[in-house]
Amino acid sequence: MISSILEYEFLRNAFLTGVIVGIIAPLLGVFIVVRRLALIADALSHVTLSGIAFSLLLSKSFTWFAGINPLYMGVLFSCTGALFIERLRSVYKHYQELAIPIILSTGIGLGAIFISMADGFNTDLLNYLFGSISAVTQSDLTLILFISLIVVTTVIIFYKELFLLSFDEEHAKASGLKAAYIHVLFILLVALVIAASMRIVGILLVSALMTLPVAASIRIANGFKQSLFLSILFGEISVLGGLVSAYYLDLAPGGTIVIFSVLILLFSIGYKQIKTKLKRI
């Protein structure tokens, strides 16, 4: 069944992109959940939407802009939003959580303006909102592969620093770790992953792929590294299962991927409860 799907180039692009996203989204999602920043993915996804809408608006207004992949503008907006979040976190030192709704609201506002200026929704924008198998191009795959190399390499190099900041930020600062630099680096990685994931999952659902596999893994994992491994495993199952279902049922892949993630989460919760009851017997 899978081999017949992969006969087509656009489907191969979609599945390769899905495999990559299934790794990098939960990989960063573990650190996001541990740091209690789960809503940051929602904020940056809406900022990315405004970047995509702005790019589509420019392509309507200027013919020479039509050949530029909107994903590039989405990445630019997402990274800019990430930097503003970090800046606002330093401004509101005692109310750092305010930074996320501020940027989220800004992203929604700009997106609504750009969409209305471009005369409403079109097929391209809907593909970005909910994901699309046929919309993934070779250019998208190349960019996503490049982003994944950056993300995985950075996590490997700065794993110890990210781990310390996630569990004990005060101790990390006291030990001489440059926390501000690591914070900015991490949030830029999150911005890149969100921009990379939206072609498959969709802007409105990308945060689910960064949090639901993690939520499932922490129910049954015995440690951080095991949670990291299970999150990636659950992410891959969700992406591949969702893409196959979306292809054969002619559905938006973002929705099917999220539903698979929800089912895995429900299974992990049930497994944990049954395991707890059996121990009591």
UniProtKB/TrEMBL annotation:
Membrane topology, from the record: Multi-pass membrane protein
Any single Pfam family the record assigns to this protein: ABC-3
Key words, A-Z: Membrane, Transmembrane, Transmembrane helix, Transport
Compartments, as annotated in UniProt: Cell membrane; Membrane
GO cellular component: ATP-binding cassette (ABC) transporter complex
A single GO BP: response to zinc ion
Coiled coil: none
Transmembrane segments: 14-34, 39-58, 64-86, 98-121, 141-159, 180-197, 203-221, 228-248, 254-271
Family, per entry: Belongs to the ABC-3 integral membrane protein family.
Protein known as: Zinc transport system permease protein
Organism: Bacillus oleivorans
Lineage, highest ranks first: Bacteria, Bacillati, Bacillota, Bacilli, Bacillales
